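Blackboard transcription, Thursday session:
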Amino acid sequence: NAGVMQNPRHLVRRRGQEARLRCSPMKGHSHVYWYRQLPEEGLKFMVYLQKENIIDESGMPKERFSAEFPKEGPSILRIQQVVRGDSAAYFCASGLANTGELFFGEGSRLTVL
Amino acid sequence: AQSVSQHNHHVILSEAASLELGCNYSYGGTVNLFWYVQYPGQHLQLLLKYFSGDPLVKGIKGFEAEFIKSKFSFNLRKPSVQWSDTAEYFCAVRRNYGGATNKLIFGTGTLLAVQP
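(Written on the board underneath:)
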């Protein structure tokens, strides 16, 4: 399924810079989820958003990370002052309300030098 | 704490061998269960899902999974694997109750390598 679009696919940042990852959900989906995948680990839930609302951010680090899903445009995951430990693959998924099934994008791979 | 456990981190099989990947979860109550697959360099794709009804679920590409409520398990099976099944497999659980936020909790994944 090519419906969930993420960009950039690869992003390289130096420590202290900002990273912005974008996600456009499948057409008709109003629910967006962000997951982070670290080497040798599974996907860790970060945040769940609906248009203009953060529904569940229980997986977001308390500092430097933020997410939004504006009325118009893609969802954005923003990481300020990146550190090496932020290097990971960040996956976006979208879904319909209450179906449970999520459709994933191809991921954005962040490398922090 | 909420958790989904996949006991096999790496599995190596020869073509035509049978496959069973374990998945256990630690929630009580009603759950929805999923298996996703991630082929090298690709995004996660849904293999199969269980919401209710027949606990033996058929998915794509010959995969099936059985939900055993008493064991909190949802193991993935395939009678005869192919080289093209080489991928990483993720089990995921969604708690199904009024306060749930629809998020899926994933296991750590199982890397399957099928040797021709």
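Lecturer's comment: The mean pLDDT of chain B is 91.
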